[in-house]
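*** Residues and shapes ***
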Amino acid sequence: MDYARESCGAGAGKGLTPARFVWPYGGRSVYLSGSFTGWSEHWPMTPVEGCPTVFQTICSLPPGYHQYKFIVDGEWRHDEHQPFVTGNYGIVNTVLLNREPDNNPAVLSSHTTSGSSMDVDNETFQRVVRVSDNTLHDPLPKISEADLEASRHRISAFLSTHLAYELLPESGKVIALDVDLPVKQAFHILYEQGISTAPLWDFSKVQFVGVLSALDFILIMRELGKHGSNLTEEELEGHTISAWKQTKLYLTSQSIDHGKMLSKRLVQAGPDENLKDVTLKILQNRIATVPVTHSTSDDGSYPQLLYLASLSEVLKLVCRYFRHSASSLPILQLPICSLPLGTWVPKIGEPNRQPLAMLRPNSSLSAALNLFVQAEVSSIPIVDDNDSLLDVYSRSDITALAKDKIYTHINLEEMTIHQALQLGQEPLSYGSAGQRCHMCLRSDSLHKVMERLAKPGVRRAVIVEAGSKQVEGIISVGDIFRFLLS
């Protein structure tokens, strides 16, 4: 079938339908073979840019029923998460392409589990498939309420029986800031230490009284950028953290919503608190970390700061515990596109879904800071004109403006996000997101995404379309725990 071989990777010819084949499970070399090659030719698949473990190829095939397999590092493989049947060549994956390329694609199989190795278009995992008896089925795998509750119960039980003490590393450092420290110096420390949050210590009260975070810097930057601001650059030079906190209370008291979001008491935990309570404290108070403190005196004076607990650290323990028993938790085997978690780009017919905040690289830094505060998001995907992922701008990136006091001589409306991203790191080449952008596919299992989010420094993963890296959604560590503990 030479016409199929010649059209592989090219656009569809007359009477042909483009189909994308994806192998998302890694390997050194991956090839595609199938009924459309006579099972004798092997078509090479190439890694997706930014996702080295995902291989793809796009072929133009005649409408009809096709069987295919992959050759991974010299071994014949099939994708267990894709529709498959037993044929003359063993277990093979299957696909049925419609006669008209513009029609919705269908998948033919006696198995109707979802996956990512055959992605005809962006909607493959949400479309209806027609099996040979012409009965309609949902291609997304289903889980019973009993299995769902059983999985959640096991994870909840694990968190309830393990303590915050288990999060403490064998060695490390924890940074706390004196409330009498100048704000400008405090943010320079955050930048130099590569952290976005630090507990605040008040010597007069002999206790921790709050937290200084990147959000504080964002609010200061927005305030400095206002006409008629109550805070000048000169005042900021001598402004202490405690003075800024009082200023913030005054500013946010003008807005009920912002005051509700920002005027919070210090949330902390003890080393003997169970991980479920620690996790719920973070989720319910919508904070990034919880200081783990301990005092040897009965009155709680002179507490020791042991650690800053985060959801990422908790998730790491969960993944480590269930790593070899994930199959016993049905919920972990489901693709994330079938679960109610994360924030997704709204589809047609979903007007009530909250839109996913995205910006172009030439958008102003002011637009990004406004989104952080008003939309209450911690990160913003930066995309090109086709909504393909280029980079991610997060709250913690704002501390880069403390370098050499850059914040004193920039205009938030004139500085672009592209320029802001280059301040605290080596210049990025757009089109190559690097390790700053952690991506996943909508067909990835919940367990796979959890393992990725449990890695050091990873707080979120952007869900992208396999070939184009077009942004489809974003999923955070907080999304994972809100779903697991709901």
About this structure: The domain at 2-137 is CATH 2.60.40.10 (Immunoglobulin-like). The chain has a mean pLDDT of 77. The radius of gyration is 26 Å.
